[in-house]
Write a structure and sequence with these properties.
about 260 residues, alpha+beta, Fructose-1,6-Bisphosphatase, Chain A, domain 1, 2 domains, three-stranded antiparallel sheet, 7 helices, globular
Length: about 260
């Protein structure tokens, strides 16, 4: 199917609402730690009741909003390439990105929803339930963040990636929960730098809003970890490049990403 800019503009606030609703479902469990049941998936990554609650809500709402568009979610990823290779567009979902941060209760976890068209992300929403922030973007229309204050008032603003000011440190964002061999080599390229440790897809958002200038990822991630952050960063003026990927980054059999770099 063909997707127009008008459709993307109409879907963006609706997808943001779905992400916020999924975040509320996560918070209902997050606020009752005794209800958090941790399991190990086949790849040894953790799974909680919150992952499943958010997944079920998002799948249900997307089926209502766009019943004709298939969905690839972390919690329903066993769709063979023989099927996926025929998808011109699809929703790419990580219902709870940063499950380790959720378990550690540091608040740095997100809901990620992206729309992929012809192998590239064109719409993305990242909602951080504890932080009460929702980042969103449509390629070609800009990137935004909506923040809700203690009084429940929400303000939205445009965000823009920015280059480091001469003489000031280059702010480099890295993973809080995953070791990255080779990171020291990158840091050595920037003698005047400040390293920021952040969980989940929020690292993309820091570059997109100008709070950081560089996000090197030296280790495996999955497509659903990066789709929404990719389009938010690019729409805000940053560049995202992947090592060793030929052709469209999000239309391939392998679900695992290699190293990548987000920079202004």
């Amino acid at each position: 199917m063909t997707v127009t800019q008008q459709q993307l503009s109409q879907w963006l606030p609706q997808i943001s609402k779905i992400a916020v609703a999924a975040g509320d479902a996560i918070l209902a469990i997050y606020q009752q730690p005794q209800a958090v049941v941790v399991q190990q998936k086949a790849d040894d990554s953790p799974l909680t009741a919150a992952d499943l609650a958010a997944h079920q809500l998002i799948m249900r709402e997307l089926a209502v909003l766009t019943p004709e568009i298939p969905v690839l979610s972390e919690e329903a990823a066993d769709i063979p390439w023989s099927v996926r290779q025929h998808w011109h567009c699809y929703w790419l979902v990580d219902p709870l990105d940063g499950t380790k941060e959720f378990i550690k209760r540091n608040g740095e976890f997100t809901v990620n929803i992206a729309l992929i068209v012809a192998g590239e992300p064109v719409l993305g929403v990242i909602h951080a339930p504890v932080l009460q922030k929702t980042y969103s973007a449509v390629l070609g229309l800009g990137a935004f963040v909506a923040e809700t204050d203690a009084q429940g008032q929400t303000q939205s603003r445009v965000i823009q990636a920015t280059k480091p000011v001469a003489g000031e440190p280059v702010k480099i964002v890295g993973s809080r929960s995953h070791a990255q061999p080779g990171m020291d080599d990158i840091l050595a390229l920037y003698p005047n730098h400040q390293l920021l440790a952040v969980g989940s897809s929020l690292k993309f958002c820091l570059v997109a809003e100008g709070s950081a200038h560089l996000y090197p990822r030296l280790g495996p991630t999955m497509l659903w970890d990066t789709g929404a952050g990719h389009v938010i960063a690019v729409a805000a003026g940053a560049n995202v490049s992947y090592e060793g990927i030929q052709g469209p980054a999000y239309q391939r059999e392998e679900l695992r990403n290699g190293n990548f770099m987000v920079k202004v």
